[in-house]
Design a protein that fits this description.
Order of helices and strands: HHHHHHHHEEHHH
Number of domains: 2
Number of strands: 2
Keywords: Membrane, Transmembrane, Transmembrane helix
Strand order of the largest sheet: 1-2
Shape: globular
């Protein structure tokens, strides 16, 4: 199994796609979805989002926004659901990525999802077919790639996929079959209805830098770092308050009561435990960003 570098994943997905064909029994379903995504009024949402990103210095083809929205939010003709995870964009999201929003409109939610949320599609540079499939794969996770099995998120509906699916987190069922049209099949279908669905031949580096930028890492770890900081400050303040209780009042304290109280030690202990847990969370989230980068 190749190492899960961007270059290795792009090459592997390109090779699988080169041999993949749409299964005849899936053709009707694929055409329905592809035609809908290319319908002018629907397409306008995606081209506008692509243009918005372009004005901000990013480059994401409209059709990649379209298939991502289809996979994450379904048909959703009124565009009420976020491209990030399918939750309503006018509410705080409850699915991963959690805690996003609420937003003013679908485009604002899409900007947030593509720029600030993993896998940071707006910061992807390789728009060959292999590159497009790889950044899409990162949306769904790298479990299939590291396991060395076809990814239904990409290839369901094609001859590259027959069975095997994660039925819940970390639980892979080799007999389960995805009923969702995969991204490769959607893109092939869209090419029938829209001549602008064209992929680059320029196999450039997938990311602008080898490591994720500091601002992305900071954003991903912000909540955990805030918890760590608050725990440290709270532990110090709590211990000081408990210590003050032994040195105030009208009765002269005995030497024993001048020692830090048991309560003070408890406050410090809880704060240290929270700080340790938060530090571990920071490290894990940093590693997750680096892995998805």
């Amino acid at each position: 199994m190749p190492k899960a570098t961007n270059a290795a994943m792009i090459a592997a997905n390109e090779a699988v796609f080169a041999k993949a064909q749409i299964r005849p029994e899936w053709q009707g379903r694929i055409d329905v979805a592809a035609r809908r995504l290319c319908e002018p009024k629907t397409k306008a949402w995606f081209t506008e989002e692509s243009a918005r990103l372009k004005r901000k210095g990013y480059d994401v083809p409209w059709f990649m926004i379209a298939v991502t929205k289809e996979m994450e939010a379904g048909p959703d003709p009124q565009f009420l659901r976020s491209i990030a995870q399918g939750d309503r964009w006018d509410r705080i999201s409850v699915n991963v990525p959690k805690g996003r929003g609420p937003f003013d409109d679908w485009h604002e939610a899409a900007d947030d999802a593509l720029i600030k949320c993993a896998p940071y599609m707006a910061l992807w540079k390789n728009w060959t077919m292999g590159g497009a499939l790889t950044i899409s794969m990162k949306y769904n996770g790298l479990g299939y790639f590291t396991k060395g099995v076809p990814n239904p998120y990409l290839f369901s509906g094609t001859t590259a996929y027959s069975s095997g699916k994660y039925v819940r987190d970390s639980v892979f069922d080799p007999q389960a079959v995805s009923a969702q049209v995969g991204i490769a099949a959607l893109l092939l279908g869209m090419q029938k209805f829209d001549a602008s669905v064209v992929f680059s031949n320029d196999n450039v580096d997938a990311r602008p830098s080898a490591a994720p930028p500091k601002d992305i890492v900071d954003e991903a770890t912000k909540a955990a770092r805030n918890v760590r900081t608050a725990a440290g400050a709270g532990g110090i303040a709590g211990a000081a308050n408990e210590g003050a209780k032994t040195t105030t009042g009208t009765v002269v304290p005995s030497p024993a009561t001048l020692l830090p109280s048991l309560a003070a030690y408890s406050v410090i202990g809880v704060a240290v435990a929270v700080m340790i847990a938060a530090t571990i969370t920071v490290a894990r989230r940093k590693a997750a960003v680096e892995a998805i980068w």
